[in-house]
Recover the amino acids of this structure.
């Protein structure tokens, strides 16, 4: 069973996978992986993944067979396991608990070579629907306090499989990074009685120098203090603390804006590796006046090195105003016609 | 002039290098760098770096000429600049200031191919001396509140030059990551009236399952909740909040233990890329009962991907107990005889 351990100083949690128990030589092998023609996420290979927990586009009576347009399966090598109790305990001054959680893979398309930036919007909307459906289902399990959904695209951004997919991890604790974000929002709210994200959206729309794209429901900006060049945040214009609060209009609006943003990014930096993360309120907090869900897109263009590790500072060689202007001015009309 | 910008939510600072102003195409070129035979850090090429601020092993009347055994120079492409005022100001709800600071390169050896793990201890002690000398000198500048010293070894860990070097950045603010650490230490101290690092050292020495090496003055452990496989912390056994509090005995003790640890690491994972960071108390805080300086060594074996970015959690496939045992049991006697 994996173990969750808490750093006694900062309070940061790590997941220790005892099972994998990697020795030095194992790391050398890892770098050689990812070659070869077989893809466990492609249609026809459904039996090589754990049984699916969700599938769209195919009759329900034929699970784990081809014909699906999107499929969600448990991760074959999960960071956390679903069965068991947390069993919180100490080891002297240290704190730990069992690595209980869910780790799922959202297989975003049956087409091995299709990427987010060239996906038709009918396909993309299914991804956002799947995120919602999985969160709503996993939320029923009272052991889970937080669900993070993220995507690693490209080897340099941590993807070990080429086939377009994102991941979901349900956690028994609210992660440090989220708590920090919520505390910051609360501090702002205490002082101003306004949501900081709503204020960011207001200021960005009025300054209009860091906006990448917007539509009726959503806005995409290069944030004022971005960690990486071409970092982009997508935020609902309406105040909303949880992803699952979205209605159908918003889901469509998100799909349209996300599609546009990813096309712009891919045109500016062809096949750039990236990560995106969905930040939504913790599962047990209800609706929050001070928190605002959003998606953070981080292209992988710079290194996290000693300075960043040591200080939490980031050095960014591209001002967000220039990144936003560049992305905004790119001509993506041709790409749109293709779909 | 670079700009320091503060994230309005978390309070994280980033350095925006307007001068570099990288456009998308610049990132593609960057990946091609680092080839070619010319090394600006090698003896004979002193005129290709900014004038040195410190040199050992050579008469002072011949600055910027060969003959040195260690040399410190300002970074030619600094993240922060030394001239100017902070000029703290707002931009609507956002906060920023000028990117004032010092950014120096510690050229650790005149020998291009020598690395920390095969360096004689007479060379290594000079590095730790240089760190101390530079901190003491820069501390006189009242604009600086914190100095971080770090090393990036290997391309994958962010090193852009092969020649063995570390870096120093003096900052006009105490970084978020350090504040977080100090707050955690203070929380522990408030509750227990003891330094958390002193307690960690006490528990590690009594459990004796995560210790990599120790001598009279220092101890090296794989921390209980490590972010990366084979992460190692080196801590002075004596309570001390600042690196510059070290006496000569300790300096020797640190050199010996550091040398042993790096040889063990390099034997376990030959030429593994790594970062190390020196964490010491902020410059203006005086001596702190609750904080304890230390060095964090992070081998680069796993990826920072969407999950880590999104949550601040880390997934570590190697339990620190196994990493420590592996490092402890490695036979490095042969390597020691060579020096």
């Amino acid at each position: 069973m994996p173990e969750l351990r808490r750093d006694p100083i900062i309070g940061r949690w790590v997941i220790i996978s005892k099972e994998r128990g990697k020795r030095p030589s194992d790391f050398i092998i890892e770098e050689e992986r990812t070659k070869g023609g077989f893809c466990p996420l492609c249609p026809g290979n459904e039996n090589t993944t754990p049984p699916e927990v969700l599938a769209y586009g195919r009759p329900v009576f034929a699970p784990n067979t081809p014909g699906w347009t999107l499929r969600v399966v448990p991760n074959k090598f999960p960071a956390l396991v679903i069965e068991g109790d947390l069993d919180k305990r100490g080891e002297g001054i240290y704190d730990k608990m069992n690595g209980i959680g869910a780790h799922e893979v959202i297989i975003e398309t049956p087409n091995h070579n299709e990427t987010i930036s060239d996906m038709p919007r009918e396909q993309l909307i299914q991804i956002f629907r799947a995120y919602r459906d999985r969160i709503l289902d996993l939320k029923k399990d009272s052991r889970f306090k937080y669900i993070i959904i993220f995507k690693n695209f490209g080897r340099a951004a941590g993807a070990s499989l080429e086939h377009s997919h994102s991941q979901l991890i349900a956690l028994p604790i609210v992660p440090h990074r989220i708590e920090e974000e919520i505390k910051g929002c609360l501090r702002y709210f205490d002082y101003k009685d306004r949501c900081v994200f709503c204020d960011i959206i207001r200021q960005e729309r009025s300054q209009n120098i860091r906006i990448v794209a917007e539509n009726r429901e959503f806005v995409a900006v290069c944030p004022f203090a971005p960690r990486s060049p071409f970092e982009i945040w997508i935020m609902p214009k309406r105040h909303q603390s949880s992803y699952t609060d979205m209605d159908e209009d918003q889901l469509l609006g998100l799909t349209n804006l996300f599609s546009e943003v990813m096309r712009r990014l891919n045109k500016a930096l062809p096949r750039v590796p990236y990560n995106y993360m969905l930040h939504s309120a913790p599962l047990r907090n209800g609706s929050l006046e001070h928190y605002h869900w959003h998606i953070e897109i981080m292209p992988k263009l710079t290194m996290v090195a000693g300075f960043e590790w040591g200080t939490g500072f980031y050095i960014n060689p591209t001002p967000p105003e220039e990144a936003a202007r560049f992305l905004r001015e790119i001509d993506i009309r041709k790409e749109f016609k293709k779909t």
Remarks:
- The two ends of chain B are 45 Å apart (CA to CA).
- Chain B has two domains: 3-28+36-176, 177-338.
- Confidence is low (pLDDT under 50) at residues 29-34 of chain B.
